[in-house]
């Protein structure tokens, strides 16, 4: 079983905190504690011998006094901290211990400071932090690290259990330690205060960790939903693009192929009966084929609206309208709002495509002499294209989908707008796009 990377990371952090604390308290002891002890020893050697229970050394003991308990304390703690770091970075032991690895590391970092302090600190020369209270202070930072490890990995009930176990373990060592039998009452009160503090702090750590995990899970679910939403949007975009291509091909290639197919079927029927009629039908089919090729090329070219991208909406419409008016000798009236407000790319694309399709229809079918284009945008954007051509019967032509009206209407709906067409026989046609 591979151990959790998060658990390994937090154990390594705890190991370096332990070692850093030892270095900090060692600097404090050897910078402040040792000179004070030496001064106390010098003063004691000039005084009368103390009572038998007095902790200060007598003048005869001064020469034999050394700091080996202090060195022993830091050596033992330093070795345990380094061993903890070694275990935190040694992957084979993580894999071997598997599920009990984290519990084993907790036992090491929680038990080692207590055992070392109860074994060595009571032998310290009289000075700072050599009392029962000092011993408790020496243990506290490392035990707080152990508490944080418990609260991070387990639930609050385990925090309470850990606090009680630490207290019971310390009292068991006190009973077996002859040096500290006289300080049991002091240790008892210190243990009570520490246990209460551990439970209170552990509760807040557990609460914060649980909230953090809930937020992480919520974020994970939100990320999964966002990924699903993005995938759905991508599929929708692909579907819309397919529909757009279908409209382009339907308005060009499908019409041309249908006309050619009908002409060829007729030519086949007349082939043995009227050769001249057959030749005429084949000529018409060839002409329809050329027109279909031209229309298909135009549709493929228009799939990428270079004019719209390069010139902007108003100039692109102006260029298309002027080009059509010039090619077919039509009078043109333009009324384009300037400047236009910023519109979304989809809206601009829709307006431009509807303009192209409407101009294409009027130049091919309306037999108009003039046409006009008006574009305004205030509370809504309105495009109006009108001509003075022959018009058509709305009921027959619109229902059959001629002149690309169905495709134009679909474009308008996809952009959140509406398309209205007004036409009467011999009274021209008006196309109004509103978004």
Structure characterization notes:
It is a single chain. The chain has 435 residues and is α+β, with helices and mostly antiparallel strands. The chain contains 14 helices and five strands. The protein folds into two domains: 5-225, no CATH class; 306-435, Heat Shock Protein 90. Helices cover 72% and strands 8% of the residues. It has a five-stranded mixed beta sheet, with helices on one face.
Question: Could you list some keywords that capture this structure?
Answer:
single chain, alpha+beta, 5 strands, 435 residues, Heat Shock Protein 90
The side-by-side strand order for the widest beta sheet comes to 1-2-3-5-4
In percent, how much strand structure appears in the residues? 5-15%
Domain unit count: 2
In terms of structural class, how would the helical and strand content be classed? alpha+beta
User: What is the β-strand count?
Assistant: 5
Rounded mean pLDDT score: 77
Inertia-based shape: rod-shaped
Report, as a whole number of angstroms, the end-to-end distance: 61 Å
Number of helices: 14
Q: Topology as H/E string?
A: HHHHHHHHHHHEHEEHHEE
Which stretches are low in confidence, meaning pLDDT under 50 for 5 or more residues running? 44-66
The share of residues in helices is over 70%
Oligomerization category of the chains in this entry:
single chain
What does the largest sheet look like?
5 strands, mixed
**Rg calc:** 46 Å
